[in-house]
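hey so i finaly got around to running the thing on Phytochrome A-associated F-box protein from Dendrobium nobile. pasting the sequence first so u can double check i didnt mess up the copy paste, my clipboard has been acting weird all day
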Amino acid sequence: MVTTPTTNTTDNFSLLPDDTVLDILTRLISDPRDWSRLSCVSSRFSNLIRSICCRSWCCHFIPNLAADLSIVRHVPGGWAALRKLSICCPGLHHAGVLLDEYPNPKCSRRPIWEPHFASAQRGFSREEGSKLLASRFRGDCLYVSQWPGCVHAETRRKYLLFRGVFKDFKETSVWKAVRDAKKSRIEAKCAFCDGKETWDLHSAFCLRRGLDFHQGEPVVRAFVCENGHVSGAWVEKPMYL
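ok and heres what it spat out for the 3d tokens, dont ask me to read them lol
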């Protein structure tokens, strides 16, 4: 009995050198979701995308931020997290907007709670980050997305969502403050990396004075993970009284 040899596509693909695979992957940038999908195909894809492709992307599209974060040590949370930070809005849940904003979860208009593609991708500013911090933390380096952020118009008010990252976070005065303020620690995943907990910058008194309350709600909500990624929201005036 004569058997016909079969071709194993997976084995043939494994023979391709990394340079060839990377050449293919770097051409898939029109849809930001492509790399996420391919990362689920194989560990080889995942390793190449997270370490090399994402680094190349960040160095090209946010060169100043990428250079400043990597000059001290490694990029906090990895290059894939930095790329996600640059293109994704954290969503209302990760920005600290409470779920009781939505009394009827079965309504036809589904609120966006989770990370999604940001409506504006204008880079990051250290000056804007400095405006958020209390005076005793001004020596820390915080980059935040430039205004206007991603606007979420809810029933009672508007939220301007922003995201950011601290440089060398574990060496900052903010980290020392949130680490010591045990009440500010909450079990909420970071929107950008694998961090399992975040700290409330408002209750840890890391935000500048004047960013207090409006209509019983903080003017600015801001949460930081152990890798220094920040998710937050400005509160605009109520849409009605």
